[in-house]
Amino acid sequence: REAAIRTLGLRHFDVQMIGGMVLHQGRISEMKTGEGKTLVASLPLYLNALEGKGAHLVTVNDFLSKRDAVWNGPVYDILGLTVGSIHGQSAESGNFGNSYIYDPDYVAENPNGWHKLRPVTRQEAYACDITYGTNHEFGFDYLRDNMAFRKEELVQRELNYAIVDEVDSILVDEARTPLIISGPGNRSSDMYYKMDKVVRRLTKERDFTVDEKAKTAMLTEEGTHKVEEITGCGNLSDTENLETNQYVNAALKAHAVFKRDIDYVVKDGQVTIVDEFTGRLMFGRRWSDGLHQAVEAKEGCQVEEENQTLSTITYQNYFRLYKKLGGM
Predict the structure, then answer these.
(1) What gap in Å lies between CA 256 and CA 211, rounded to an integer?
(2) Spatial CA neighbour of 285 closest among 194, 180, 170
(3) Whole-number Å distance between alpha carbons of 200 and 197
């Protein structure tokens, strides 16, 4: 409180002190707009950063992660702590995006830039006592670290303490939103067309069963034999037929479970998913595990190259990894 008075000319109100205590206990503090979340967060961030294991403030956008780091920077600086800020990637910034440290003596060359934010490596920004950044950036850095081959490539330290701003939005509304890093797959588009023709020759109930609720379809014993006969692949359960099995299952699901103009629409040769809750078209979103390609083959569209998931985590599971978590 004293440091805030000396640097910012602001004195934490008693209710703001209580808000800080609640966040320190790993609970959620609800504050209305204008009640000073930015100032409140400085209390538990400082206290938990004293362990030397790092404290993160998770904001909802890049602007806030810059603004809050600069705004609270003088408070932490006078108390002898370092402050980092991580931002989204840009074409010029290379693999790990823009990262900065609050430096009271630094003046940015770019007049539109953030004065006092000195560019550093991602590792340096995470090595600071306190680091500001978005949920998106923290999550993707975690995934990239999991894919690193050498220890020197890791950017994050252990996940010690975090305060999540707009916690209701991130941990309720977006809780199960997956963060996904994907790479090009190596499946053949021809196989999707071939399996589409095979599945068209199957009969419901006799060759396959459908569970509408679980949105799954399964071959019966008779259906399995029929597929083996048409494709000439031998035993469909053999390990060498694992990929063939995946093509068959995707084609079967595309035909038996997913319905045109209900689950998806076809326009200009493109298959677009329909959100089952809102009914809105989800442009740019694609089903995984070959399902989107199977639907494209079913509708006679161009089968687009498949991406395979290399690393994924939901926001909910990522934030569970922190030793202690508070929210505002």
Answers:
(1) 9
(2) 180
(3) 5
Pair of tokens at residue 77 = 């600086």
| Secondary structure of residue 194 in the 3-state scheme | helix
Q: What angle do CA 256, 257, 262 make, to 5 degrees?
A: 120
Q: What is the pLDDT of residues 80-128, one digit of tens each?
A: 999 999 987 643 444 445 899 999 988 877 655 677 899 999 999 999 9
- Per-residue pLDDT of 204-216, as tens digits, reads 999 999 998 888 9
> What's the CA gap between 178 and 269, in Å, rounded?
28
CA geometry: angle at 278 spanning 275 and 283, to 5°? 40
Find the largest Cα–Cα distance for the chain.
82
User: What is the C-alpha to C-alpha distance for residues 164 and 87, in angstroms, rounded to an integer?
Assistant: 16
Amino acid 41 reads A
Instruction: Give per-residue pLDDT as tens, 174-185.
Output: 888 888 887 777
Residue 48 in contact with residue 55, Cβ under 8 Å? yes
DSSP 102: E
Q: What is the 3-state secondary structure (H, E, C) of 245-297?
A: HHHHHHHHHHHHCCCECCCEEEECCEEEEECCCCCCEECCCCCCCCHHHHHHH
CB neighbours of residue 82 within 10 Å? 18
Q: Considering only CA atoms, which of 40, 204, 178, 65 is closest in space to residue 132?
A: 65
- Percent of the chain past pLDDT 70, that is, above it, reads 95
Measured over the CA atoms of residue 189, residue 193, residue 194 and residue 198, the dihedral's sign is positive
CA Rg, the chain, in Å?
Answer: 26
Helix then strand then coil, in percent of the chain rounded to 5, is: 40, 20, 40
Q: What percent of the chain has pLDDT over 90?
A: 71
